[in-house]
Amino acid sequence: MSESQANTNGEGRAGLALQEPVAPARENIPSRWPRYVWAGFAAAFLVFLLVGTVPARIWRLGALHVDTKSIARTWMVQLDHLPDVRFQGLVQASFVVSLLVFVIGVVVAFRLLLAPDDVTTSDQAKRV
Fold it and tell me: Beta strands 63-70 and 53-60: pairing type?
């Protein structure tokens, strides 16, 4: 058999069959929109914490007043007015750490809520 006949039969020089390149299946390609949505939610949450305001009910002289207060400013005031104790730095550090745990926990929760269902099952199948 000549080389031209081998090539028309789909075989290469060493007698190996040549295969057409196969495009990956569309359903196997992960969608990127959950990542974009997560990034949008996380950015919006962080901007809300930095510049957002919430209504605050404050009692002054026996009367209820409703003011709007900045979230970041409220946390700073709370940090400045923690109880006076012997190890003040430790109390302030634990307050800051608790705020960071809260913020990071919300951002991670956004990611977990938007994760596809098959991610956990495929990762578990790979480990087995």
Answer: antiparallel
Query: Three-class SS of residue 54?
Result: strand
**Crossing angle, helix 33-51 and helix 71-80, to 10 degrees?**
60
**Do residues 107 and 42 make contact, with C-beta atoms less than 8 angstroms apart?**
yes
Q: What tens digit of pLDDT does each residue of 87-102 get?
A: 989 999 999 999 999 9
| pLDDT tens-digit map of 29-72 | 567 788 888 899 999 999 999 999 988 888 888 889 888 989 99
Sorted by sequence, the CB contacts under 8 Å of residue 78 that are 6+ apart come out as: 95
18, 41, 127 from 119: Cα distances, Å:
34, 20, 13
Residue 69 burial (CB count, 10 A): 13
Q: Which residues contact 99 (CB under 8 A, 6 or more apart)?
A: 75
CB 17 within 8 A of CB 8: no
Helices (H) and strands (E) in the chain, counts: 5, 2
